[in-house]
Amino acid sequence: MNKIKKLLSTLCLLAAVSTQANAALITQDLIEVASDGSTGIIGSITIDTNGALYDPVFGTGEVLSFVSFNFLGYDIPVEDGYSFQAIFDTNNIYAGIEFLDFDIDFSLPGWAFQGYFDAFDNPDYNYFTVFDSGSADLLFVNGLALGQASVVSEPATLVMFGLMLGLLGMRRKMQK
Question: Relative to the CA of 12, which of 60, 83, 99, 156 has its CA 20 to 30 Å away?
C-alpha cells in the first residue's frame, strides 16, 4: 500500500509540473540591420507563452498579444497594437520567437510602425518600417533581426517545482 501511495503522489507531482513546464515569458531584443550591414538594438519584446494557441502538427505556439514592447525608446501600450502575431517552437522555447509580425499605431510621437521577421526565410525579407501617422509618409525602413532569447519561467511553474521539492523533503524526513 505504501508503494502505491508513493507512486500515486509521484505521478500527481509530475503531472502538475509537466502541465506548466512550457509556460514562460520570452524576451528578445529587436535589432536594426542597416543596408551597410551595421546593427543596433532598437527595442525589445516580451511575449507570454501561457495561453498560446498550440499547433500539435507543427509543434508551435502562437500568441496574438505582447506583454511588453519597447521600440525606439518608447514603451508601447498593448492597446496600440493594431495587429500582432508571434510564433515559437513549443519543444524549444529557448530558441525564442521564430516568426513575428506586428503593426502598431503609436499615438504619442504620432508614429505607425510595422515589422516582419521569419527565422526560416531569407533575412532580406525581415524588415521594419516607421510612418508618420498623420501624413502616412514613410520615415524610414531597415532590416530586422531578433537577439538571443531570454526565457523566464512563469511563477506557477516555480511554485509547483518548490512544492515538489518540499513534498520530497517531507517524504524523506518521514522515512527516517
Answer: 60
